[in-house]
């Protein structure tokens, strides 16, 4: 990673009048509010996203998992991966939009996947620091970030959201193993990204689900949300990701990329942060996606090199095996092989402290295609 960063000394990242130098990320990376804005293309593989997951309950105590992911393909190679053509136009944004609602008591998962192609001026309102992701047909996400608060309004044929998230200025910037504040190695050595997370947002608002029989279910929900903002130069799209949300407010994040590289962060309930890697991730089972018919790991046990909330081992027990994000037309590379179709499991699970046997929180997990991860039964990275 150090050599890769040094080789990019002449590169600069431009946001409005501010420039970010890859070899000097500690110099001035900008505020979390400034970096909410879409960023300019740096290279053919410039890429980034805005992400939110939440585990919430309605007034009767029924649980729901909520997810929105909006991937901004700035580089021409990234655009080609999504739409089959190279577009070297920074004003034209190709957005991979995904949205999930899991109504666990009803055993229903609603998935929305669209590919908006829109001009930058339509996508972002700088005066209000507001995103507007839309395909100008049937999907619209409006998401602003001011001060300590985010507002999110979402409309699609299956549901509408009207949410407020507070405590949104409670931020953790990531850090790579060389001490670059705000930067991580995004898998391969020449792939990197800036990355901050808001791990303890408090979400409340109205969730309306359009039922298949034409009726509507509208409920007030509240709970903890986790927001990620990430951007950089990286072609890596295959990983396993875990975010532990402990009941006492502590948080843990772990990326495990195809090939074995890891980036981990733990913040205890008092706000103390540790960075780590060398975690053993054991696959306890597998699930098959509905559209691409691809398999991912499903259910995990983690063995940590440091104590996390008093334990070095946790198990995640997923609540559903239906929460897949899928883009069948997308292609990617892994271990020199072309993978047709993109599949990612993304869902909630009970977080169990294996030392005590207690459920101590919720984990949200992402899990990539075993063809790309090589962590299927008897494969290279299975544990």
TrEMBL record:
Domain AttH: 49-233
InterPro entries referenced in this protein's UniProt entry, alphabetically: AttH-like_dom_sf, AttH_dom
SUPFAM superfamilies the UniProt entry points to: AttH-like (SSF159245)
Protein name listed in UniProt: AttH domain-containing protein
Annotated source species: Aureibacter tunicatorum
Organism taxonomic ancestry: Bacteria, Pseudomonadati, Bacteroidota, Cytophagia, Cytophagales
């Amino acid at each position: 990673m150090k050599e890769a960063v040094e080789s990019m000394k002449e590169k600069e990242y431009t946001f409005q009048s501010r420039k970010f130098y890859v070899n000097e990320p500690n110099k001035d990376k900008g505020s979390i509010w400034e970096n909410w804005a879409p960023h300019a293309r740096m290279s053919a593989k410039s890429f980034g996203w805005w992400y939110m997951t939440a585990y919430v309950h309605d007034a009767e105590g029924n649980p729901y998992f909520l997810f929105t992911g909006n991937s901004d393909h700035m580089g021409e190679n990234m655009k080609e991966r999504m739409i089959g053509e190279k577009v070297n136009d920074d004003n034209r944004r190709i957005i991979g939009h995904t949205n999930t609602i899991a109504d666990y008591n009803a055993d229903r998962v609603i998935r929305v996947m669209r590919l908006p192609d829109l001009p930058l001026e339509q996508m972002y309102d700088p005066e209000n620091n507001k995103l507007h992701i839309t395909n100008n047909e049937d999907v619209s996400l409006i998401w602003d970030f001011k001060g300590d608060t985010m507002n999110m309004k979402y409309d699609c044929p299956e549901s509408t959201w009207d949410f407020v998230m507070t405590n949104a200025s409670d931020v953790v910037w990531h850090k790579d193993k060389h001490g670059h504040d705000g930067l991580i190695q995004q898998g391969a050595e020449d792939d990197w990204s800036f990355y901050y997370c808001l791990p303890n947002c408090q979400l409340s608002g109205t969730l309306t689900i359009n039922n298949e029989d034409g009726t509507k279910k509208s409920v007030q929900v509240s709970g903890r949300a986790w927001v990620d903002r990430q951007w950089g130069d990286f072609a890596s799209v295959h990983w396993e990701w875990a975010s532990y949300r402990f009941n006492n407010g502590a948080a843990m994040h772990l990326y495990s990329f195809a090939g074995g590289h890891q980036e981990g962060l733990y913040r205890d309930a008092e706000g103390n942060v540790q960075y780590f890697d060398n975690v053993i991730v054991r696959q306890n089972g597998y699930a098959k996606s509905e559209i691409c018919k691809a398999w991912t790991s499903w259910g995990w046990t983690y063995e940590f090199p440091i104590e996390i909330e008093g334990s070095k081992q946790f198990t995640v027990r997923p609540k559903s095996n239906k929460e897949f994000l899928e883009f069948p037309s997308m292609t990617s590379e892994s271990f020199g092989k072309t993978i047709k179709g993109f599949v990612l499991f993304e869902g909630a699970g009970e977080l169990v402290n294996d030392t005590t046997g207690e459920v101590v929180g919720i984990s949200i997990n992402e899990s990539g295609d075993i063809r790309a991860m090589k962590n299927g039964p008897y494969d290279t990275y299975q544990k």
